[in-house]
Amino acid sequence: MTTSLVPFLDLKVDKVVSVPPATTDAEKQRAQLISQGLKGLPSMGIHTVRDALYYFPRRYIDQSENSDLAVLEVDTEVTVLAEVLTLTQRRSRNGDKILTNVVLTDDNGSTLDATFFARNTWSARYLESMLKPGTRALFSGKVGRYQGRRQLAGPDYELLDVGTEYAEQSLAHADDLVAIYRGKGKATSQAIRKVIRELLSQLPDLSDFEPLDQQMRTKYRLLSLGQAIRQIHQPRERKEYRAARRRFRFEEALVLQTELARRRADAQTYRARAWPLRDDGILAAFDERLPFELTDSQRQVGDELATEIATETPMLRLVQGDVGAGKTVVAMRAMLQVVDGGGQAALLAPTEVLAAQHLRSVRALMGDLAAGGTLMAEANATKVTLLTGALGAKERKQALLDAASGQAGIVIGTHALLSDHVQFADLGLVVVDEQHRFGVEQRDVLRNRGELTPHTMVMTATPIPRTVAMTVFGDLAVSTLKQTPARRHPRATHVVPEGKEQWMARTWARLADEVKAGHRGFVVCNRISDTSTEEDTQTTSDEDAEPRILHTVEDTVARLSTLPALAGVRLAPLHGRMTPTEKDATMAAFSAGEIDVVVSTTVIEVGVDVPEATIMVVLDADRFGISQLHQLRGRVGRGADPGICLLVSPVAPETLAGQRLAALQASEDGFALAETDLKLRHEGDVLGGAQSGFASSLRLLRVIDDAELIEQARSEAQHIVADDPQLAQHRVLAAAIAEMLAGREEFIERS
Ligand code: ADP
Ligand code: MG
To answer: What is the pTM of this model?
Structure first.
């Protein structure tokens, strides 16, 4: 037991662990590692004992067998257990270093090169003595390529056979696991393990730090904190760390869900203005002039929204519906209900292009009803104002004035609308189109403005698994538009094998035909130019994707411009490196028919609505995700004419990527496709930008796989908050929440 006044877990690591004196070589090595660990940990954000003990191993390596070296891929970080086959040394060309080349081998005879660079003869000799042929060691580093062979350059290594803690411990056990940590600089995996080992040797009884009470642990069969800490860092067999991980996942889920439950309870205390439904106002006039019948789904979800907006409890609702389900109309009707009461609504789009496009479609649907502020306005009319970062100073001033004076019933913009400079006379409703980048923080911004909280609705075309909604959005109610307005024409999707020249010729001829018929088209590429980094585009690469040169917007514009089949077709590029003004100008020209075909990246993925667009050609289609492709193709065939989507790809039909493309060709059901997609994708992709929210604090919890556990934690959290809203009887839990929130702020500041 520690006698310090500061609780053990809150002590600084270097107050508990010090570098031991050393005489033998083995002792010196250990001292050296501990010293490295102590120096390196702070740069990884690990300061206290708690930070260190909650820094969990990335994986575990079974000492009893060598790693398979054949499967290692270039450019990946690896840790392998392998045997030294040969070691050779020579001077570097310019003579200032001694190169040690080691060939490693596994149990199957596969090999991997490792090269070490020693600055002096002493270090070179040391290496030679450590890595004798036949020695088994852990090697960590990034797999590179040198003269056509895979190579680890200057890897970190750790001997396992002689004089190590593992050898001493229990070489006899078949199941001897070595914990591997994600290291950084001096704090290598090995150094971190040494420091944690020291901490564990001094570990007091941790029951005072236990956020999960005994009853809960029994109910869900969870390890105690102390047991779990030991088993996650020093498991004797696999089931020990599995049980420990499960306990920590539960703990994470509970901390997160308790905070969310607290916020839900808190939200009950917020008040919104109630906007009763009127049947003689702008909404009624709008319904009157709609050129189509609302679908049953649109009506039903519309009623849900109308009811909630008419109460003083702030609405917080996610409306999800496939591409083309008609979410915009639903949102507009909710906005007009607020305008009818003399209030204002804001519509937030994820990009400037989309904001500008929303303005066009809102004005088109409203007609004279959007002519407020002019002499000719009808009695019911309101003003629809665009407010984005791309506006000139004069327009911006006017737009700000429209918002502040209440002249504008509807203000459309990007998330810049949430900035402090934008004042509204009476903001009653905020609509967020496409949830991707809309996390808990932005919502808090809205909640904290002024006395009354606006009602909020978020629209998305990507179905969100319930657990993600719970984890990332916490307290969002969900409505689903199950129907899509009957399409006048089906939209066809075809996979085009890129290797077949005739098919490609046919593809471009088809594009030309559509343009000749007075229609418009898109050509979508993965990249902007050859120098594009991955961040410029959103691609999903597959394990089985071969490295290959991808089509770029720049190349494609150049190539298609010289293609005889496309002579006379007016092409223009559209991508994220253009300025907002350039993008808007291009989209406006495309809408107006002054441009026939835009060659773009996925900037057109969401929401772009040009009814005359009938054809889309996606190049390197296998590099996009299923949901993304479904969103993309939703851009064509929205008007009076049938649409066609051609997915061009060199991949073979029997590969995983080929099968995904085939699935798209076979199904139009975006929700079903998206669920398939979710299963194939990594969690990070699912959470997307939302990861900057609470999810960034998750260490072990997997929002999709741990659904059941999250549900359990949520129900426990609800009870806790109901019985003890201030968490006075749950101080460890309260402290863990504070810790999580602090970590989240740190994350937000860094990003
Ligand atoms: P999304 O849900 O993808 O945002 P939009 O709101 O952009 O879909 O609607 C897609 C198109 O369908 C728009 O052109 C819109 O005017 C039209 N639309 C919406 N509702 C209906 C309906 N009930 N019947 C026919 N067309 C509709
Ligand atoms: Mg939309």
So the answer is: 0.65
